[in-house]
Write a structure and sequence with these properties.
Layout (H helix, E strand, L loop, with lengths): L7 E4 L7 H14 L4 E5 L6 H10 L7 H13 L2 H9 L3 E5 L2 H10 L10
Parallel strand pairs: 1-3, 2-3
Helix pairs in contact: 2-3, 3-5
């Protein structure tokens, strides 16, 4: 297995669709077959940016919709060095949500024409 790059597997979907359960099962199956595997979740609420997102999602913070969209993106970017390191070490990462869920979340909210920056 030395020298082999890990795979990046992403499961996207709506809330309560079973993504976390399926990610956990996939990681367990990969590990049982002898492949190093770990699970990641986005947003990652443990990071600096993730804590801002968490406060917003828990309605403890009121942020403008465009700002939240950028925070979701920044949350992924702040973990890119860790993701690359793990993949280079041969660890397969099974990710519960990534880019498409963040885009879907922020685009699902109706946007007032008055909020657009003209």
């Amino acid at each position: 297995m030395a020298g082999k790059r890990g795979a990046l597997i992403v499961l996207e979907g709506v809330d309560r669709a079973g993504k976390t359960t399926q990610c956990s099962r996939l990681v367990q199956a990969l590990q049982q077959s002898g492949r190093p595997a770990e699970m990641m979740r986005f947003p990652d609420r443990t990071t600096t940016i993730g804590k801002l997102i968490s406060a917003y999602l828990e309605k403890k913070s009121d942020l403008e919709d465009h700002t939240v969209h950028l925070l979701f993106s920044a949350n992924r970017w702040e973990l890119v060095p860790l993701i690359k390191k793990k993949l280079e070490q041969g660890i397969t990462l099974v990710v519960d949500r990534y880019a498409f869920s963040g885009a879907a979340f922020t685009s699902a909210k109706p946007v007032s024409v008055y909020s657009l920056p003209f």
